[in-house]
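Protein data sheet
==================
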Amino acid sequence: MPRIKITVAYIGTRYVGWQIQPPKVEHPQPTIQGEIEKVLTAVTGTLVRVHGSGRTDSGVHADAQVAHFDLPEKWARVNWQKVFTTKLPHDIAVTSVETIDDEFHSRFSSIGKSYTYTLWLNNKYVLPARYPFVWKTGPLDIAAMETAAESLTGEHDFASFQNIGTDITRTVRTMTRISHNCPDYAQRESLPDELVWTFEATGFLKQMVRNLMGTLVACGRHKITPESVLDILAAKDRTVAPATAPACGLCMHKVFY
């Protein structure tokens, strides 16, 4: 059967994440995967399982989530771009559709991901159009955050930044970049109160980016020192790290293959 690769953008506010909920859930809430599968089922008359590159949590957004699914030959010829544009909710958009080699897997073929996290630095207000996409922190010591970010870059055991609820046991990851307002995602001229951080790694643990962001903000608020980040890493204990940042500021930005 032909394998179809799609790239999906969405506003995660109304959804409990990417992944469909287990059948045992009495009143399942809407998910991104579920909405896409609903469209495929309506057109083909059979359940088509969609496999995502990662599981974004409840309230998390995406610029370019990648997913794939397999279809019988007769359905592969459908103009799926048009179908998705017509039938998906307004807060989910399939931005590209292509037939891909059947050895491709949206999750296991990935060699890295990039997430962005957006902070709002003005305590007086948040622009209503930006409210669903930012964490209002107020002013921060950016230099302290940069120093802490340097300690988090490279290969480390990130156990202190993994939340419970996962069966992953190997917690070593390579963080290739933590930076703010990089050229491919800069908005400072038009939105000077926004600060966009980019986190790029070979892989991420459960809610790892939100935990890292919470730690950097704690540095920016002088609640912890940048130097203490190394101690948090060494502890390999989630209880010693600052609180998890809210979901609303997080966005899956890119998946690398």
